[in-house]
Automatic annotation (TrEMBL), chains A, B:
Protein family according to the UniProt entry: Belongs to the ROK (NagC/XylR) family.
Protein name per Swiss-Prot or TrEMBL: Sugar kinase
Residue stretches in coiled coil: none
UniProt lineage: Bacteria, Bacillati, Actinomycetota, Actinomycetes, Streptosporangiales
Species annotation: Sphaerisporangium rufum
UniProt keywords, alphabetically: Kinase, Transferase
One MF term in the entry's GO annotations: kinase activity
N-terminal signal peptide: none
Amino acid sequence: MMRAGPSQEEIRRHNLGVLLRHVHLGGPTSRAELTTRMGLNRSTIMALTADLTAAGLVREELPRVTGRAGRPSLVVRPESARVYVLAFDIGVDRLVAARVGLGGVILDRREAARERGAFDLPEVAGRLAAFTGEMLAATRGDTLCVGVGVSFSGGVRGADGVVRFSPNMGVSDLPLGPELARRLGLDIPVAVGNDANLGALAEQSRGVGVGTRDLVYLHGDVGIGGGVIVDGRLLGGHGGYGGEVGHMVVNAGGRPCPCGARGCLEAEVGERALLEAAGRFGRQVGRDAVRAVVDAAGRGDFVAQEALARVGDWLGIGVASLVNIFNPEVVVFGGTLREIFLGAAAQVRSRITTDALPAAREGLRLRTPALGEDATLAGAAELAFAQVLADPLDALARVGG
Amino acid sequence: MMRAGPSQEEIRRHNLGVLLRHVHLGGPTSRAELTTRMGLNRSTIMALTADLTAAGLVREELPRVTGRAGRPSLVVRPESARVYVLAFDIGVDRLVAARVGLGGVILDRREAARERGAFDLPEVAGRLAAFTGEMLAATRGDTLCVGVGVSFSGGVRGADGVVRFSPNMGVSDLPLGPELARRLGLDIPVAVGNDANLGALAEQSRGVGVGTRDLVYLHGDVGIGGGVIVDGRLLGGHGGYGGEVGHMVVNAGGRPCPCGARGCLEAEVGERALLEAAGRFGRQVGRDAVRAVVDAAGRGDFVAQEALARVGDWLGIGVASLVNIFNPEVVVFGGTLREIFLGAAAQVRSRITTDALPAAREGLRLRTPALGEDATLAGAAELAFAQVLADPLDALARVGG
């Protein structure tokens, strides 16, 4: 706000990033289209494209089909097969590793189930490094890794990738980023983000939130995470721990929460609340257990119906509060909340009607993730691409591209 | 994000606004200081200052005192006596009108008590227009009004200044901006904002939040309003109705709220909750009534102490949730919440310790407004100055300056 305008060189670097982001998020785009969308003239677009082509980030091709007469505008495509990131998703019940090409294409992907219980950092980092080794062994020689991103269910210090707290993983001050960087041995910094924050970013960039500037993403795992986009940008807060909507108190004095408080949204809506209400706690865990309750309710099981209605009501109360606080355009129910929302949509909607201000809920859409179970993984990939999209040439210089 | 860089002329206009904002918020500033702060060279600063001087927005003077040898750098001052805005604060219990000079100086101010009951728009607009007439009659001939801003306790549609909802004023779809513009007859658009949003802006620009980028401002009147600054910018939401933290449900099934829900923060912490708990509802109203309970508690009145502790506990629960959601650097307790916070700080702090995540409350400061009861009025003035600070020459052209 208080800084002066940028220099010509800053503008050029900014524009290189903007152009690259266009083809990264929008796919192959004609020069003519880029000219229109970026509000720059043709020769500037040509120069920017030439720079990005020389750097090996995009290439230009004739379009496959052209409906118009005359000389067709060249199409700029991201070099998806050559330029990629490593994305990791560390959930309570699963580990996922993927190689994701520029443009968001999943080039390779490995997944393993994870046992609950004490979080063993060396073991997890070792398994992810082993997956990475397998994936890298399968790549061609001229490929370039431009970043590493990790999604984790907890509060993360962005500066160094340390997980400050994660009641559900049972860890605090876990040096996840540094340890993973050491095990990977790729000499590329490892960026770590909160799973729900990354889910929010992914759904806004390439999911149900494309084109929206105000979005709340709720992620159910064991607990409830939140990621909030305010006016197009991820809510971070002073230390980067904002968006913990799962620890909003909805029922003061209610069920105990792993965080130490009582009646948090997570305590009333999380996996344990649902399974206990359904009389199923201690049997099965995770998404399968949640799905089993929702399925049983759908088949007419009265106990399961009551449990789902109860949890759906608390979810609706929490979402109504978030609607009043954020006046979002879209609320996305991800992870296990997808199943719960689909099973209890009537309760959720009814509570929003009762408890949210009419103006705050105008135009509100309730959605499940377009990216499905890979929303957080896709967010980890976007986190890894952030540097190269902010300043492509500088980022390449740093990773030796 | 997806737009290309600005043109030279856009940069110049931006820089004019940045320089004007520096002296508006920071007071008289030397050219040398502006050069450093804006990161521009001396000749650019001279040219920008010359433009703003020619427009009558600033003037340059020799500094009064100089500790250094050599030729002193000229000081740039806002033309506070010449360039001003009209600011109005429409509260439940009072009406305030002020003439506020560039730089934030209150040049003239009128205030009247307001009776509660049906909101009579023609009467309120008439009284504010009469105050304005008195103030304008007392101005010199070469002054220039560059904007009109209004603070109102309700949800406001920014585009046209219509109050969409205000359960506590008992109005909806009230054409406040247009009616006031008509009555003032100044041919200047009237910008209307939510009181707590404006309080947040004012405290961040010139109050306890200077230098902070993440701030939550809570305003107690009859109800509880909220204004949230996220990464330096006011949280608006999709339709501009965001920040209604008073309608976050903290006690599901609890006390009825004028909004139609139950257990909202406002229902548990608002004026009526406190007065009922203290056995004083129906006697006195407003700030004096709240102050009387806090004073009685301080003198050892057991019923008042219990009432204050109860309300303070709910306030603490609500603030703890907001800390988890926003990870703010500062929470400001304005309006009647100032008294309640000062009387129940121990409860509030204790709840935050119990219910907020340690990482989210790191470095958190709880404060009362530096601008006191004029926080919302000061915010209305800032709203009125927004155009001239965004693009000084364009704004002057529009108001005929």
